[in-house]
Amino acid sequence: MNEIAITSAQYQTHQINETEAVNCSIKATIDGIETSVPLDPANRHYAEIMRQVDAGTLTIAEAD
Fold it and tell me: Left if phi > 0, otherwise alpha if psi is -120 to 50, otherwise beta: which for 52?
């Protein structure tokens, strides 16, 4: 299996009300392409992001 190159990852949020937001996806640069990755363990990109986070080679930045 080819290694997926993830060079950045940042949580994206959905505003629930004036004071509360929840993480809904990850904005990531994967193989040079910026994409939105759903927080779904069945998604291959999400699974790879989490594998790299667990390995200590990637950090997911908090949402702006």
Answer: alpha
Arithmetic mean of pLDDT over the chain? 95
Structurally, how many domains does the chain consist of?
1
Dihedral over Cα of 41, 45, 50, 55: its sign:
positive
The pTM of the full predicted model, rounded to 2 decimals, is 0.89
In a domain, 44, yes or no: yes
Burial class (CB in 10 A: 0-12, 13-18, 19+), 1: exposed
Q: Which residue has the higher pLDDT, 2 or 21?
A: 21
Nearest Cα to Cα of residue 28 among 16, 46, 15, 42: 46
Domain range holding 32? Answer: 6-55
